[in-house]
Amino acid sequence: MEVPCVRVRPQEGETTRSALAARDLVDDDHEITVADGWLYVPVDDGEAAEREGYTVVAHDVPPRRGQVMPADILGEEPSYERLGDIAILDIEDAEAARAVADAIVESDLPIDSVVNRASKVKGELRVRDWDVLVGDTRTVHREYGFEYALDLASVYFSPRLATERHRVAEQVESGERAFDMFAGVGPFVIPFAARGATCVGADLNEAAVEFLRENAERNGVADRVTAVAGDVREVATEYEGWADRLVMNLPHSADAFLDTAVTLAGDDCTLHYYDIQHDEDPFGPGERAIRDAAEPEYTVRVETRRLVRSYAPHEENVCLDVRLTR
Hints:
- There is one protein chain.
- The chain is 25% helix and 33% strand.
- The strands form 4 sheets. The chain has a 7-stranded mixed beta sheet. A 4-stranded antiparallel beta sheet has the order 2-3-1-4. Strands 5-6-7-8 form a 4-stranded mixed beta sheet, with helices on one face.
- The protein contains 10 helices and 17 strands.
């Protein structure tokens, strides 16, 4: 269909489109097209564009096609999570999961793989089983300007905690010494290091530690990150009294590592302690456990009591930001 278009050389295209958009002249119902060495920007008002000094011609351009979403194919909105270019499903019925996977791939979403949860998080390494419906389990996840390579089949990672990780990272100051006791692929350590902290990340999962090293390189902070494979309780003596900041993101069992946290803490240390508790008293058990481990060697001051997210009916995932002062 022929519509009025501003004709410019392709190298001038983005500048021209931005200028026309600022004047509300771009015709959003038709596609910008390149033909015979010229770029054609459809406009709503050809005369107004000419008054602005542009060359306006009638040109045959296709109508803009709206983005096809999975709901357009299925007739209803499916539930899924995005992690990099992976769509994560949690659907018990295998046929229903296959239908959703096919719709996601057929849509215009930038998705290369679709996986369906086949088990709960399990074992010391906190990994799941997955039914791989399309593609594979490796991806690169982008979060607040950082990139994290990972493989869902061998490491634990939750995109739902992105906001919480960013909240903590914004508290970090250059020159700090930060220790993540259960570091995974580095979503706390990497942004800490980018803010100028010297960081140690420990994890029992050797695959996660390899990704942590890769991600430190990927994000340009390898010179400020030490990755340690093994039980943090076995390496704590090497960093006794070292940390200005500690992260303990191991809900359900972080309390078993509080003695180690006290060993790692310096004279003035901020502890980010993650817990899952009943909603009748979500903060009390963690606070009491911290005091039992740290007092009287440290003065314990709880600076933040934060509900991170609902974990299950009547169960809350919470964080305690605690100041330990020797």
